[in-house]
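Below is a typical protein record.
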Amino acid sequence: MSRLAKVAPLFVMLFAVSMISAMSLQNNAYAGLEPGMSVNVSASGGSDTISVDGYTGAAESSAITLTVVAPNGNIVAVDQISAASDGSFSTSIAVGGSQWGQDGAYTIKLKAGSGGLYENNFEVGVTGGSTDATSVDFSNLGTYDDGYETKMQSATPGSTGLSISADAVEGATSFTINGNTDRTNSAITITVTAPNGNIVSVDQLSPGSDGSFSSEIGVGGSMWSQDGVYTVSAVQGDASAYQSTAEVEIADGAVIPEFGTIASLVLVVAITSIIVLTAKGRLSIAPKL
């Protein structure tokens, strides 16, 4: 048996493994920046400037809109900020002039993407045309479990807010939404949106006495035919701490499949080649003495 015949099966096997690894990396590439938003709004006492510094996971697709509303409801400032490639952003708001003449709490509204995950409100006191000493922090950055869990933390001290995770076995035809909330007296609406923006599933759940809830969602049918990332949104009231999202990747009607079609074919060809060549030439890995 020629040396080429002995080496060929090993080469095919290595090629198959490299193809599968490359496809796995490609499937995870969509994750990008960590979902959620983290913001600090600060001002020194007696200052004429409000500083806004933060991070947004929607930096790759959305600009950040900043709106300042006076105590009487009038809009006194509007700005649009572009985040850096790493998600960070920063801006300053000038305080002064007749629009800022009313004493009281001015509301700074930040919206950095679609859904409650990327928006929040902050209050800064203004007295006599100058800011009160202020430092307000907010963060709902997601923490991951196999890349598909997003937990939101509330900005209200002592409150845990709403959190959800999407759990499934790779290649399954359904996935389970598990969640928790510290509001046990109101329903939770679960909505699943396809990559093209169409809503493919809506459900309403009542949390248990301990705040936990769960829902199994099937991915079969024509509405789930599009490959890509499906967004699961959980909403319980209007507060941003009670709006949470998670993402699930669907391909060929199954949840985050372990192997794509091409990778599977490459693996089959590799195994078949080894079997055929071994049978013909009685291939042995051990060297002959």
